[in-house]
Each structure stands twice: as structure tokens, then as C-alpha cells.
């Protein structure tokens, strides 16, 4: 019996890629050729496919094969239905060159795999078309595709939001909206690699069986789902995944012509909820989006922990900034997982995609980080920025997994406000006497600034309008403190719950309730209601409170010296608040049990210390702080 030899890849140079072309012999047998081309020379016109490889349990390189150079190459089972569809559409044998990752790359060669990943952005950007294969058709896929095409034909910039809702929220479209939810819940939307395959190409079409629809139509349908809240699509997990891709596409395309950048750090945070078979790909799979992709070299001989550590080191070195460590509280080590120091974000931690921002250092003015702000906000330059360490650069030394950074310890956490999941931690009985305390109105102004991080909008672009926000803050708290409150003066339940948990919290020796009662009544402005769901900025006091306290789980904090700020949920009494050189915001550290170094707890807002004021303190000194 003659043994059939499997296809063996021929080595290619670092600057080459392979392209695939399908052939048919006289007997109708389908085979293919693989040919190497230099990316430094004009390439033949080619198309690519974006698809999910499926799970290890249901998809291995078995039993399907494709004959190349008279030798069988095992291919993913998921590709067979796509090839059948290509043939049914008359495309398979039309002479088109294809780039299909699992066929055109020798995945067993780790060096080649790393080199090819570095070319991904180029490959997808240069492709004539990228076809997203969502799988075979379902009962409602054709209906949904027709609905998206209808939206694309009908909706234009001059159509108003009320007109859109009147048109698309009719009962006759109930099945279509349900179909869109199913369309966005297909597995393709959950995979990390498919993000760049949606964003980077110049032309993309989505296929479900024989039905197809353009990326432009899909993007507009996602936008309409955002507007048509009663359609119910916006509440589904698939919508968030799809909408973040839409936002990333806007930023990526804008970055081609304007001074707007997509950073690898921001993308890693916004897409941390995605699925990845290989945890290294939580960074590698997003490099094609990033303007700063050179921060990381793809190397599959390193484990995920080393890749994450290398990324943190590279970021600090490139930007002379410690801002990346502020992500480590949200993206923290998982119990029983690979060990990482407390200052290195663990991108394996799958967090729900941030509706607001991943971190305070994601402020819009930070071009080397940034955020996925809305399209219309890109037309305006950010007016403010946090700069807790002034203009200083990071002064640091990294040895092994330890980060020694120069900074200033300002104060110690004393009391922490309670939240839905945490009890209040009371301050010491009298960390400052009444005779030393400033007026109650001044203290509450500081509390108000802290609760909204001294910003008007959720992308941290504009300063808090002090008079308006403080007035609304006091009006709301006085309504709650008045027992009983009148029915016509309702207050948001989230703020009521927060105040009830914290009315006895002492700040500079006085309870929050006493501070409210001792402050003169302000004139109501009429803007104290909950934010309108249609508003992108939610730029009222309560809108910002809801973002910071409810969505981001920040907690109000008072220090031993009576200062006020906000800390992350892991902070505890006795933690120290410090400003590290080269870090835009203060951080909270906890002394290690052996007293030899600190653990990073998270970022911090400290009122009065967000713009370099710590550098002018006379009663503190600079020191090297070792963070383990």
C-alpha cells in the first residue's frame, strides 16, 4: 500500500506571505496551489476570509483535507461549508487569490507564526475584500440581512432620532430586531482575532450561507440598535461586542487622516471580554489596530505572563510613564493563575467591556492611551487633563518582577464610603477637630468634585462645572436628608442608597449628614434627574455619579489628614496614597506583610492633588517605592 505523504510547508522569508488559489482538473477534482509573495513588492489582487476556528472539542485539523501540490493538507472543518458556498456563488474557481490564515501560515512553526502575525494589519488592509464567514444560514438570517440593507438604503444623516424611532420601532419590525440580536450573538463576534478583521480592511462583507451584507450596512444597523432602545438589541451581550468594534472602526478610520490614535493599551482594555484560545493573543490579536504596535514583538516562544510583563515594561520605557500600572487593579491576577506582580495588568482577566472608561488615565487628552469616545466628540479637543506628577518623567528601575519607582507618599486612607457590596469603613473618631475644619460647604464641594472625578463628561475631556454640579449635588442630598421627602421631589434610588449607607461617614470630624444639614439650601437648577439614555455624555451631576460610583465601583475616601478622594473597591484603611513620578494620577499602595515593599491596590482621585500639587508639599520627601 502506497503511503500518502501529507503536505509539507516550504520555508518563507520574514517579508513574505503565502497566497492560495483553487484549481480544478478535467475530472472536476478541486485542489489548490500555495505561492509565496514578498510584501515589499506589489502583490496580486487577493481576498481574505475572517472566521472562527471553533473550539478544541469540536474542531481540530481533521478529517477534511485540501490537496496542495498533490499532497493532502488537513484543514479546519469549519472551512468546508465556506468553500461549498464559494463554489455555489461561482467564485471558487474564478482565479482569485486568497489569504486564509490556517492554510497560508505554517502554524507549527512558531517563528513563522510570529512573523506572519506582525504582517496581519498589512494583509487585511491590502486585501481587495475580506469576507466574514458567520456560518450557514439560519431561519432568520435572510430576514435580518434584508433588514440591514433596508436600513442602509433608508437612513441618512438628515433623518432625526425621533424619525428613526418612529420608523424602525414599529411592531412590524419585531422579528427583524430579534434576528439582529441573533446575528450579533454568533460566535464570530466573541473572538479576539476577528476584531482587527472587522476594523482594518478597506472592504468587508458578512456572509450567512448564501446571504451577504456589507460592513457599512452592519455598522449602521448597530448604530440604529443603539438609538432604538425599545427594540431590545442594546441590552444583549452581543450588542456591546459589536458596538465596540463599530467604535474602534470609527477611531481607526479617523486616525488615517486626523491626529487621533488607537493605542494597544486602550484596545486591550476595551476588548478584554473577548474569547481567546491563546492568552498571548489578547495582545497579539489587537496589534493590527494599534498605532503603537511596535511596543510588542510577537514571540510565541514566550508564555502569556512574560508577554504581559514585557508589554508593561515596554510601555513604561517608551513613554517614560507609569500610567499602565493603573490598569492592574481592574485587570488583576486571577487566583490559581500564572503569577504576575501587582503592577502588571493581567489581560487574561475577562472584564465586561467598559461603557465608560477603563481607568482615569484613559482620559481623552492622553494620546498614548486614550479611549473609545464617540464619533462626535472627536471633533473637539480635550480641555483638561490629570497630571498629578506634573511634568515629571518616570524615575524607575525594574529588576525581575519588582518595580522601584520614585514618588511621594501624601497621606493614609482612613475612612471609606460603603457601597452596594462593601460596608462603610469609618474614619478615626476625630482626625481633625471642628475648630480646624473649613466650612461645611467647602467640604461638600470637595466631596462633589471627588464623586465625579472633577469632570463633566464620561471621557474626562471637560472640567466639572463647579457651580452647577455642587448646586445639584446639594439639592439631591438635602431632599434625601429631609424626612420625609415630598413625592414630587423624587431622587434617584442609587444616590439614596449611597447616602443612607454613608450618612454617618465622618470627614474632618463631621458626619456627611451633618455637613449636608449645616450647608445653606441652594436654588434648584432643574437638572437633577437621572441622565437621559440618549445622551452620550450623561453630563449632569447624577449622570457622572452613576458612571463613577455605580458603573466603575469607585468609593469615596477620607484620609487621616482630612483630605477627600475616590479609591477603587480593593482599598482599605491604612493603605497609603502616593504620587509616582511619571504617573498621571495618584495611586494607592499597601505595605507588604513582611514590610519589604508594597502591593499596588489601584489608582486614586485625591482632590487638590491632581495637577502636580504634591511636588510643592514641604512636609513630605521623595523616596523610591518598591512595588512587588
From TrEMBL:
Q: Taxonomic lineage of this organism? A: Eukaryota, Fungi, Dikarya, Ascomycota, Pezizomycotina
Q: What is this protein called?
A: Heterokaryon incompatibility protein-domain-containing protein
InterPro entries reported in the protein's UniProt record: HET, HetReg/Transcr_Mod
> Where's the Heterokaryon incompatibility domain?
46-197
Organism of this sequence: Cercophora samala
Q: Which domain of life is it from?
A: Eukaryota
Q: Where are the transmembrane segments?
A: none
| A Pfam short name | Het-6_barrel
Amino acid at each position: 500500500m502506497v503511503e500518502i505523504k501529507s503536505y509539507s510547508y516550504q520555508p518563507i522569508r520574514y517579508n513574505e506571505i503565502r497566497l492560495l488559489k483553487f484549481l480544478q482538473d478535467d475530472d472536476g477534482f478541486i485542489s489548490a496551489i500555495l505561492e509565496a509573495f514578498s510584501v515589499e513588492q506589489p502583490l496580486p489582487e487577493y481576498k481574505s476570509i475572517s472566521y472562527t476556528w471553533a473550539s478544541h472539542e469540536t474542531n481540530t485539523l481533521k478529517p477534511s483535507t485540501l490537496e496542495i501540490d498533490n499532497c493532502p493538507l488537513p484543514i479546519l472543518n469549519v472551512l468546508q461549508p465556506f468553500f461549498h458556498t464559494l463554489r455555489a456563488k461561482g467564485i471558487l474557481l474564478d482565479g482569485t487569490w486568497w489569504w486564509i490564515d490556517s492554510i497560508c501560515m505554517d502554524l507549527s512553526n512558531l517563528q513563522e507564526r510570529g512573523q506572519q502575525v506582525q504582517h496581519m494589519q498589512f494583509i487585511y488592509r491590502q486585501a481587495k475584500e475580506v469576507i466574514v464567514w458567520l456560518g450557514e444560514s439560519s431561519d432568520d438570517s435572510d430576514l435580518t440581512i434584508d433588514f440591514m440593507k433596508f436600513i442602509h438604503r433608508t437612513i441618512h444623516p438628515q433623518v432625526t432620532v425621533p424619525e428613526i424611532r418612529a420608523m424602525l420601532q414599529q411592531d412590524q419590525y419585531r422579528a427583524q430586531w430579534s434576528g439582529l440580536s441573533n446575528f450579533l450573538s454568533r460566535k464570530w463576534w466573541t473572538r479576539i482575532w476577528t476584531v482587527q478583521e472587522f476594523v482594518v480592511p478597506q472592504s468587508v462583507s458578512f456572509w450567512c450561507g448564501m446571504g451577504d451584507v456589507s460592513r457599512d450596512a452592519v455598522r449602521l444597523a448597530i448604530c440604529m440598535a443603539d438609538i432604538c432602545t425599545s427594540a431590545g438589541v442594546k441590552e444583549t451581550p452581543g450588542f456591546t461586542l459589536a458596538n465596540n468594534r463599530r467604535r474602534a472602526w470609527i477611531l481607526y478610520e479617523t486616525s488615517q487622516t486626523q491626529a487621533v490614535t488607537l493605542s494597544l493599551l486602550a484596545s486591550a482594555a476595551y476588548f478584554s471580554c473577548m474569547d481567546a484560545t491563546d492568552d498571548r493573543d489578547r495582545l497579539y490579536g489587537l496589534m493590527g489596530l494599534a498605532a503603537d504596535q511596535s511596543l510588542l514583538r510577537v514571540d510565541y516562544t514566550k508564555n502569556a505572563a512574560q508577554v504581559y510583563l514585557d508589554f508593561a515594561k515596554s510601555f513604561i520605557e517608551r513613554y517614560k510613564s507609569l500610567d499602565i500600572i493603573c490598569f492592574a487593579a481592574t485587570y488583576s491576577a486571577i487566583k490559581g493563575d500564572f503569577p504576575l506582580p501587582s503592577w502588571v495588568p493581567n489581560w487574561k482577566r475577562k472584564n465586561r467591556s467598559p461603557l465608560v472608561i477603563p481607568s482615569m488615565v484613559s482620559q481623552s487628552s492622553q494620546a498614548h492611551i486614550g479611549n473609545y469616545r464617540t464619533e462626535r466628540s472627536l471633533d473637539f479637543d480635550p480641555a483638561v487633563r490629570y497630571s498629578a506628577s506634573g511634568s515629571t518623567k518616570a524615575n524607575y528601575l525594574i529588576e525581575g518582577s519588582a518595580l522601584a519607582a520614585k514618588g511621594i507618599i501624601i497621606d493614609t486612607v482612613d475612612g471609606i464610603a460603603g457601597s452596594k457590596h462593601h460596608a462603610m469603613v469609618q474614619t478615626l473618631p476625630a482626625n481633625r477637630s471642628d475648630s480646624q475644619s473649613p466650612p461645611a460647604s467647602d467640604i461638600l464641594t470637595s466631596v462633589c468634585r471627588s464623586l465625579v472625578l472633577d469632570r463633566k463628561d464620561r471621557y474626562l475631556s471637560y472640567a466639572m462645572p463647579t457651580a452647577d454640579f455642587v448646586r445639584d449635588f446639594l439639592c439631591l442630598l438635602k431632599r434625601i436628608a429631609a424626612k420625609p421627602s415630598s413625592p414630587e421631589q423624587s431622587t434617584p434610588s442609587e444616590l439614596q442608597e449611597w447616602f443612607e449607607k454613608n450618612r454617618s461617614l465622618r470627614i474632618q470630624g463631621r458626619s456627611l449628614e451633618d455637613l449636608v444639614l449645616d450647608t445653606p439650601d441652594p436654588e434648584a437648577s432643574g437638572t437633577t434627574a437621572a441622565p437621559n439614555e440618549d445622551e452620550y455624555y450623561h453630563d449632569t451631576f447624577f449622570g457622572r455619579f452613576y458612571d463613577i460610583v455605580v458603573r466603575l465601583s469607585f468609593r469615596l475616601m477620607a484620609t487621616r489628614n482630612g483630605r477627600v478622594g475616590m479609591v477603587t473597591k480593593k482599598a482599605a484603611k491604612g493603605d497609603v496614597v502616593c504620587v509616582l513620578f511619571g504617573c498621571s494620577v495618584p495611586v494607592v499602595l499597601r505595605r507588604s506583610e513582611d514590610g519589604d515593599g508594597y502591593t499596588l491596590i489601584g489608582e486614586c482621585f485625591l482632590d487638590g492633588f491632581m495637577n502636580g500639587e504634591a511636588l510643592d508639599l514641604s512636609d513630605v520627601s521623595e523616596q523610591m517605592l518598591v512595588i512587588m
